[in-house]
Every structure is written in structure tokens, then in C-alpha cells.
TrEMBL record:
Key words, A-Z: Annexin, Calcium, Calcium/phospholipid-binding, Metal-binding, Repeat
Family matches, as SMART domains: ANX (SM00335)
Residue sites binding Ca(2+) per the record: 104, 106, 108, 148, 334, 338, 376, 378-379, 384
Protein name (record): Annexin
Biological process terms in GO annotation: response to cold; response to heat; response to salt stress; response to water deprivation
Pfam families according to UniProt: Annexin
Gene Ontology terms: cellular component: cytoplasm; plasma membrane
Keyword Metal-binding: yes
Note on domains (UniProt): A pair of annexin repeats may form one binding site for calcium and phospholipid.
Molecular functions (GO terms): calcium ion binding; calcium-dependent phospholipid binding; phosphatidylserine binding
Coiled-coil intervals, chain numbering: none
Family statement: Belongs to the annexin family.
Amino acid sequence: MQTITSIQIRSPINANIITLYTAASITTFLKPTSSDHLPTPPPFSAHFITTSPPLPGRASRACLVEGPPVSRSRIPQPPPMATLKVPATVPAVADDCDQLRKAFQGWGTNEALIISILGHRDAAQRRAIRRAYADTYGEELLRSITDEISGDFERAVILWTLDPAERDAVLANEAARKWQPGNRVLVEIACTRGSAQLFAARQAYHERFKRSLEEDIAAHVTGDFRKLLVPLVTAYRYDGPEVNTRLAHSEAKILHEKIHHKAYSDDEIIRILTTRSKAQLLATFNYYNDTFGHPINKDLKADPKDEYLKTLRAIIRCFTCPERYFEKVVRQAIAGLGTDENSLTRVITTRAEVDLKLIKEAYQKRNSVPLERAVAGDTSGDYESMLLALLGQE
């Protein structure tokens, strides 16, 4: 078996050179109390995809790195590709709780104060605020939020305040219960999270809904989609950089043969897409492009209106170029006469601590308009202010 520990390959979507790295982050998670019912996800190892080597002493494009909350002291800033703006000096958790309580009380709700606090705290800090708020006031913070605000603003604040794994569980539950062929939320969660992050989301799903994600998908999704999505969300992929080049070459041929014969739901296609590591898949797609002269996604456009083929293409795009996938989701959410607030909120709240800067760059390049301006033009009020805060607007 031929393996390598670090590779540079050409993206199957464009001509960029992609460098693959891995790095582990030891995550400190606070133990939940009975009052706030927060799940305790395990530490995770993030898989990084960058378009250039990392600077010395600096991590490459990183997924969320969390640590214990630090009161009134300098704290590590979010990853370089995140848009979240956390103050260099953060107030004590008790002070944040006190200010939030004041925002909820009185004759009117102080929405700007809610945004100024929750819109500028990372996941670990928000988790600490939820716990301290419940301990101090005997009420879950999320309950106070839903009692005081509503609509798209409420949904944005709630999703953002949730722990990342818990948020994924909520989004996955909505997608499974209201599933329709054009819904790609389950694909997003399964293919743009690291293995341990996906596992943590499934654990949070157990905790919150008292059943498994896969049984809900099996209950609400049918046919080829069920055959594909159940193993996709239950995968625990290897996150390392090693690539078996011989295997990549042979599986590229398998994929081409099945696609050529229009056997799109063949067990071999599903096996490869739902079990191989991201690094291995990128190598396989690259061999496909080199051997057959065009990207795999081009061969999956035989019927542009076929939702199953669109799902296969979405899976591949999430692995190869997630920022371009999310840019398209945002563009379609904003385009047209109406706004798809759920999709817009989902992308911004799930990527603000990960790679929203890259998504903003892709949006600017594709549309010649800053994403902040597009969001401001299609939203209003406190909802607009919350999204712009997460987009990094001062």
C-alpha cells in the first residue's frame, strides 16, 4: 500500500492547488448542569483544507477551537477565517448575565444589548453564560430569549447561542422531519464537519430528542435518498492526511464506470462517498479529473433537474470546496423577490466561527458585491443587526 503523510493535489472543481494538513485541538468542555441540559461533546480533531501552507507558528484554516471561559483577561481570538469579533478583554460571565437580564426586563427589550453581548462571544463563552444565567436566575437563557423576542431575529439568536453540536442536532432534526428532496442541510452537516464534530452532533441529538438521527432519517426519508443519507450521517471518517494513491486510482475508475452506466445509487458509489476520508476523496476526485479529462461533477449533470444527482454534487462540493458551496446557498437565499431567511441564518450562524471570511470572499468574487451589503439590502431591523454582527461588522 502506497501512502503519504502530506500531499498537494489539484482541486477537482478548479485549478487551485490544495494543501492538506491536520491538527488536533484539545477542547475543554464545561460539564453541564441539570438546569441547562447542555450535551458534553468530546474533544475533536479538525481537518483543514487550505489554499496555501500555513504561516510559521500559525494554524491553517481551522474549525472551531474552544477553551474555558476567561473573565476580564485577554483570550485567544477566533480562527483566522472566522468573522466572529470577540473583544480582546471580555467582561466577567456574571456581568454578561446581569446585562442580559437587564435587557430582558422592563417595559421593552433591549435588543441592541443582546446583540452586543451574544453576537461577540465564542462558543465556550456562550456556554458559560448559559450555565451561569440558569444558576443565577433559575431560568434557561434560551427561554428568556424566546419570551422576549420573535421572528427571524429570535431564530438567529437562538441558533447562535446554542452549542455548535446542539445547533447541528436542531438543524438536522428539522431537516429530517420536514425532509424534501431539495433540502441539503443533512449533507452540509455530514460533509462539512469533522468526524468528532459529527459524532458530537449525533450525541446531542440523542440528548435533546431521545432518539437517534439515523432512525429519524430512516423514518422520514425514502428510496435512494434514504440509502445515501443514513450512512452519510453515521460515518466516522478518518481525519488524517494519509492517502492511498493506488486505491484512489481504482476507486476513480469505479465511480466513472457506475456514473457512465447511470447507476447513481449503486452501492459502490455510496460506499466510497460515505466511508472514505476527505483526503482520500480529494485524491480520488483528482484522479478522476486527470484520467477522464473533466471533473466528476460534470458527469453528474446528466439531468440538471434530478434532485438525487444534485445531492451527489452537493456532497462532492462540500468536500472539495465548502466555501463555494455555502456561497451558492447564500446567493440563492438572497436572490429573487423573497429572502430565504432560514438558509441565510443557517449559513451565517454555523460558519461565523469557522470559515465565513472565505465565504464572504467567494461571494464578493462571484457577485461583485460585499456580502454585508447584500445582507443589509435583504434584511432589516434587529435581524439585520444580528447577522451583520456575526459577519464581522464593528
